[in-house]
Design a protein that fits this description.
By secondary structure, this protein is α+β, with helices and mostly antiparallel strands. The chain is built from one helix and four strands; from the N terminus they run αββββ. It has one helix spanning 3-13; strands at residues 18-20, 31-36, 39-44, 57-60. It has a four-stranded mixed beta sheet with strand order 1-2-3-4, with no helix packed on it. The longest helix has 11 residues, at 3-13.
Length: 68
């Protein structure tokens, strides 16, 4: 999945409360999705905008037959 596909899914699902590659401080109670070097870093924040312990994941998208 690339950033454009992520944006399409977010729009289709009408999701709110997220940060997709925005260059800013985290906000309260949001899901953060960052795409860096063909990997996704995903985590959630709490009511103080701190990363929730154990929520941070580093996901690598491996291609199979030209698709992810």
């Amino acid at each position: 999945m690339n950033v454009n596909e992520a944006i399409r899914i977010i729009n289709e699902e009408k999701l709110q409360g997220y940060n997709l590659n925005e260059d800013r401080y985290n906000r309260e109670n949001e899901v953060v999705l960052k795409h860096e070097n063909d990997k996704w870093i995903v985590y959630a924040t709490d009511e103080r905008a701190s990363v929730i312990t154990g929520s941070k994941k580093h996901l690598s998208m491996k291609r199979k037959h030209g698709k992810i």
